[in-house]
Amino acid sequence: MELSVSDLAVSLGKRRVLHGIDAVLRPGRVTAILGPNGSGKSTLVRTLAGLLDPDTGQVKLGGKLLARLEPRERARRIGYLPQEATVHWDLRVADLVALGRLPHRAPFAGLSAEDLAAIDTAIETTAIGPLADRLVTQLSGGERARVLLARVLAGQPQWLLADEPLASLDPVHQLDLLDRLRGLAATGMGVVIVLHDLVQAARAADDVLLLRDGRTVAFGPAETALAHQPLRDAFGVEVMVIGDDQGRLLPVPIGRTKTA
Amino acid sequence: MSRIALNGGLALLVALLFAGSLMAGKFWVPPSAWFSPDPRWWIIAELRLPRAILGLAIGAALGLSGAVLQGFLRNPLADPAVVGVSSSAALGAVAAIVLLGSSAPLVLFGCAMAAACGSMLLLAGLAWRAESAVAFILAGTVLASLGAALTSFLISIAPNPYATAEILDWIMGALTDRSYAEVQLALPFIAIGCGLLFLTGRALDALTLGEAAARSMGLRLERTQLLVVLGTGLAVGASVAVTGIVGFVGLIVPHLLRPLTGARPSALLLPSALGGAALLLAADSLVRLSPGPSEVRLGVAMALLGTPFFFVLLLKLRRSTWN
Fold first, then answer.
1. Of the residues A74, A251, B114, B225, which has the fewest C-beta atoms closer than 10 A?
2. Under an 8 A CB cutoff, do B206 and A99 touch?
3. A3-256: what CATH class?
4. pLDDT of B257-287, one tens digit each?
5. What is the CATH number assigned to the segment(s) B3-322?
6. Is residue A136 within 8 Å of A90, Cβ to Cβ?
7. What ipTM was reported for this prediction?
């Protein structure tokens, strides 16, 4: 099911943060949203997740207006992994992952067989089985990132929206998480991630949406969106494009664009 | 510990303490006198039973609302006093004594309830659609201070020393000499309030991951806030309206029981209600046994018990953030 926005404008308080965004995001692909700090990436993801109401324009899921969906129905289809990784109470990992089933459960109902199966699959996909009985405070940053991802996956969403999931992860865990997200897209899930690292975006993303000051600079396949000119326009940086051993082109920032 | 074992154990404890509360006092009434034509039966039926019922209900209301507020605000230091409901209810009762010159149970109760619910609605308005729990806590603290200041002001303009004595007597919090009239007044409100509070479990669980994640899981936080505010206003308002201010139950009980429930906020609600009932029944039985002709005030005893606990809690929190 496609997730699309048309002529989207969003404000935070009185400040207009996004202006006239148009994009059709396709399932089964990884779409990376990139842009300088304050360019509206998180706002766009939160709007896609249905957490912010647009001033104008629409967000549609499979042709239906997102705003018309009942919140729980929306939550079953769109999983959102916020940037904030705080867990306020010291839960057991398995209990934390089980929270992902909330949109599927009736009030006061226990976990059904279906719930338990979904939780097991999520734990397996993220390889956190050995951590299931640990407390959240006993996890390393990389483990915690995987546990929080498992929470979202337990809800079996059609779309996964992750806001800077790589922040505070070391390179190995960054690569590990990106590979897992790619694996999820390969199963048909739509994956949207906010990233900062151009190289990681080039490695992991099928499509890239470049933002600057709340406007689209480029949207399209990673190779075209992560080329010299769009990156100059979005970030004001010059890149050197190098090829990796799998033939992918990776843009490495080497300096700031000189303004004439 | 499994949920059934924990809740079963606590329920048993409450039942024992309820029976103990019927027995204990300046006159000790053994169980053998309960079901016989013993004249002491009158003490049980007319004096101790309403008092025990109120202790049970009010303890449950305080424990439950503490657990709900801590979960809602994601703060282990939250309790009904922090959001201003207790001091608002007290203000209402004091206003009835000073301004209306009446200390009839119905008038006191009505004024205290009105003030408690009014202040909770004001709180909901002040914190409406606020992004963080901080706004809610700040607004609650402001209301609590305002309530306390206005109460002091009313005491200072009290028409005569009798009114002042009556106010102080009432504010200190006690279950002494409470009758079925108070039970009839308070019980329905406490029941409805607790019912509303029990509906928040799912939302409290989801809030463990922060507000954005909770809303992304399909929860309507505005609805949750309304349940919390109304439930607390009704349950705690009615409690304070018949006993005066009894603090710390809502703070201590959820905190003690949290490790036994795996820290899941929804799993903490029923144990906190039972634990609150047990604590209040035990404390109310103990204050009756204090030496001398009069009793130690329940509210005073709770504060004496609660303050050291609060210090230990703070020290523990600081140590865990340092390490």
1. B114
2. yes
3. alpha beta
4. 998 998 899 999 999 999 999 999 999 988 8
5. 1.10.3470.10
6. yes
7. 0.91
